[in-house]
């Protein structure tokens, strides 16, 4: 089917050269043939894809892949066809220019539709991928190299998502994430539990699809550990009341792990919490925070705090406190706080940590700078938290063989990116399935 479509496209692209060469063909036959090929061209561009994929996004991505392949093959063929036409045709320069313009414009339209359909379906393609395509689509053979890279990246995403969907369908009835107690996902600092932009990316959906009952911590974006823990405690009680469960399982990221520990140890939530799993949480604090607090002028810090508090006040926080949130992460502050909130014997504690492999792993520019600073101060880190600081209870280090590593944001699927050697959705599925297996 793909090669038949390629043949139709190539004939359509070169209708003008064909008709200027084959002058003996009757006009009526030319018109009919042109209409038929034009309809075929539009059908190829806009038809659906015959694929077992059930979602519109996946079908769009699959068709975008097919059109990208057709574009690359067409470019390869068209350079040869146009070159032969320019050399062999007896037509004048003006006629040749017009004949060449037709396939170039039609090919550009095909290329544009391919990119749009891929963009509709893809969540892994970056702006740079699209810019490179449009900058070099006409530069042969560089355009083929860029298209091959684009095609491989999109194909990898398609099969990754297709395999993931098939796996979820196969185990849906088993409800491997249906734990005894509901799950509360507790976010870190400088974020809220918004509905439109989920802090946890694709994770909650896959957990629910596999049987988990999922709630959110709902604490404000930046407050002291005590104040955030008070808000979290209210959420825990609300979940207990709504579900009728005796306890909850908490999975907390970054500062959310400290908020959770405080609520458990100092606010009486130990009787309501069965397990606490912390992800990249600075249990020993962040030495980077102490370093920056000692270097940044107080005037600038206060200005930044006012701006932050004003913005997040408008976004829904009732009492945001930027400086209290930052100071809570201080390594000096955590020395005393760790003594204040000893572990409860009634709660199962476990912790996970990821590390970046190099400065290019960051993706986000601020993480690249903080990675270098923390590496100098403490050693291996995820861009915000150093490795030893994350250890608490049963500990697990998550590493990849790939040079990219896993950042502070990757571990919660913040950017919805498929990281090499780290399937974030499978990681959380395994995490919660383990809780179920242990009776929690």
Order of helices and strands: HHHHHHHEHEHEHEHHHHEHEH
CATH homology superfamily name of the largest domain? Alpha/Beta hydrolase fold, catalytic domain
How can the largest sheet be summarized? 6 strands, parallel
First-to-last CA distance:
52 Å
Helix- and strand-based class?
Answer: alpha/beta
Briefly note the CATH topology name of the largest domain.
Rossmann fold
Question: Going across the major beta sheet, what is the strand order?
Answer: 2-1-3-4-5-6
Number of domains: 2
CATH class of the largest domain: Alpha Beta
How is this structure best summarized?
The protein is an alpha/beta fold.
Write the layout of secondary structure elements.
Blueprint: H1 2-13, H2 15-21, H3 27-46, H4 56-88, H5 93-121, H6 127-136, H7 142-171, E1 183-186, H8 203-209, E2 214-216, H9 225-243, E3 248-253, H10 255-266, E4 273-279, H11 287-295, H12 298-314, H13 322-328, H14 331-340, E5 348-354, H15 365-377, E6 394-398, H16 424-437
Parallel strand pairs: 1-2, 1-3, 3-4, 4-5, 5-6
